[in-house]
Amino acid sequence: MLGDNIIEIKGISKTFEDNKVLDNITLGIKKNEFITLLGPSGCGKTTTLKILAGFETCDEGEVIFEDKKINDLPPYERQINTVFQKYALFPHMNVYENIAFGLKIKKLSKSEIDKKVNEVLKLVDLKGFEKRKIESLSGGQQQRVAIARAIVNEPKVLLLDEPLGALDLKLRKEMQIELKRIQKQLGITFVFVTHDQEEALTMSDTVVVMNKGVIQQMGTPEDIYNEPENKFVARFIGESNITDGIMLEDFKVKFCGRIFECVDKGFDKDEDIDVVIRPEDIKIVNKEEGNLKGIVKSSVFKGVHYELEVEEESMNFILHNTKNFSIGTEIGMDIYPEDIHIMKKSGEA
Ligand SMILES: Nc1ncnc2c1ncn2[C@@H]1O[C@H](COP(=O)(O)OP(=O)(O)O)[C@@H](O)[C@H]1O
Ligand SMILES: [Mg+2]
């Protein structure tokens, strides 16, 4: 066994015509993990899932499932099922028939089918909906049928391609919690795809950030949020202050014309780097006291905090603060060493 990995993707690449959409993707997926591919539209998420499911082939590289290379295995022989964004339910069949469809093809007995369908109906909270027509269901209920239909086959891995994309925000939040519960209860591996960073961070054990067919960073949601490895990740994951800096020596960085103590080391002397500072990590102090000072340019209430734009001599900072400050106020800003994140230059503009 490859550690506790159920799937290993080794150096896969894929080109459509002249367009290299996956460039040497290498990735281990652990048993029972909730792993999410996160990235902007067109970065290659769906193509990666299709290669895992067997609906698409890769030009280079290997897909390993439980120690066996499965590149040439057809989809129906893989212990992997997919829930697509467009649920592709059979409109002329009722809920029960939709879920039972795959089991009938496998020629299971009527009583076995009945038992399995009832179990998953309970799991997705759709008991009593057996006879309902698909078109009479809400978007959220249709989504549950699609999930039930995929998990009734007892796959070891479930691939979910932006499954919540069509739902409104409230329902989406509810389904995020539901999906986590289902995954925990079933104890199977979920490979989830989304372009929504908040969704990825709340749901996943591991997040894989992709851009232009290349993995940018892989780690826990906390790692990705707190320690983005490059500018792309920092920008994509959340509101951030990003600026050029120079790593003078270990634990000493210069930006905004000042020298700051930081917690990073191992860079070349005077290496050009990017500095990222989260809006919630900048403390507001009296203007005489901070490491930096600036003037409040705008303030917007965001529900929990105020988002302030503060003009500093060399750049504009975004700050999140529970207290409001009126426009024109001169403030001091304090940034602690552990809140200064240093990233290698990535070429991202
Ligand atoms: N069958 C195909 N033929 C040609 N180009 C494709 C095909 N499938 C996907 N692409 C292209 O590959 C890139 C990645 O697509 P996709 O994997 O669907 O991205 P994502 O799911 O991250 O939005 C896009 O530029 C898309 O247009
Ligand atoms: Mg897609």
TrEMBL record:
<dbReference type="GO" id="GO:0005524">
    <property type="term" value="F:ATP binding"/>
</dbReference>
<dbReference type="GO" id="GO:0015594">
    <property type="term" value="F:ABC-type putrescine transporter activity"/>
</dbReference>
<keyword id="KW-0813">Transport</keyword>
<comment type="subunit">
    <text>The complex is composed of two ATP-binding proteins (PotA), two transmembrane proteins (PotB and PotC) and a solute-binding protein (PotD).</text>
</comment>
<keyword id="KW-0067">ATP-binding</keyword>
<comment type="similarity">
    <text>Belongs to the ABC transporter superfamily. Spermidine/putrescine importer (TC 3.A.1.11.1) family.</text>
</comment>
<keyword id="KW-0547">Nucleotide-binding</keyword>
<dbReference type="Pfam" id="PF08402">
    <property type="entry name" value="TOBE_2"/>
</dbReference>
<comment type="function">
    <text>Part of the ABC transporter complex PotABCD involved in spermidine/putrescine import. Responsible for energy coupling to the transport system.</text>
</comment>
<dbReference type="InterPro" id="IPR012340">
    <property type="entry name" value="NA-bd_OB-fold"/>
</dbReference>
<dbReference type="InterPro" id="IPR027417">
    <property type="entry name" value="P-loop_NTPase"/>
</dbReference>
<dbReference type="InterPro" id="IPR050093">
    <property type="entry name" value="ABC_SmlMolc_Importer"/>
</dbReference>
<dbReference type="InterPro" id="IPR013611">
    <property type="entry name" value="Transp-assoc_OB_typ2"/>
</dbReference>
<dbReference type="InterPro" id="IPR005893">
    <property type="entry name" value="PotA-like"/>
</dbReference>
<keyword id="KW-1278">Translocase</keyword>
<dbReference type="InterPro" id="IPR003439">
    <property type="entry name" value="ABC_transporter-like_ATP-bd"/>
</dbReference>
<dbReference type="Pfam" id="PF00005">
    <property type="entry name" value="ABC_tran"/>
</dbReference>
<keyword id="KW-1003">Cell membrane</keyword>
<dbReference type="InterPro" id="IPR008995">
    <property type="entry name" value="Mo/tungstate-bd_C_term_dom"/>
</dbReference>
<dbReference type="InterPro" id="IPR017871">
    <property type="entry name" value="ABC_transporter-like_CS"/>
</dbReference>
<dbReference type="GO" id="GO:0043190">
    <property type="term" value="C:ATP-binding cassette (ABC) transporter complex"/>
</dbReference>
<feature type="domain" description="ABC transporter">
    <location>
        <begin position="7"/>
        <end position="237"/>
    </location>
</feature>
<protein>
    <recommendedName>
        <fullName>Spermidine/putrescine import ATP-binding protein PotA</fullName>
        <ecNumber>7.6.2.11</ecNumber>
    </recommendedName>
</protein>
<dbReference type="InterPro" id="IPR003593">
    <property type="entry name" value="AAA+_ATPase"/>
</dbReference>
<keyword id="KW-0472">Membrane</keyword>
<dbReference type="GO" id="GO:0016887">
    <property type="term" value="F:ATP hydrolysis activity"/>
</dbReference>
<dbReference type="InterPro" id="IPR017879">
    <property type="entry name" value="PotA_ATP-bd"/>
</dbReference>
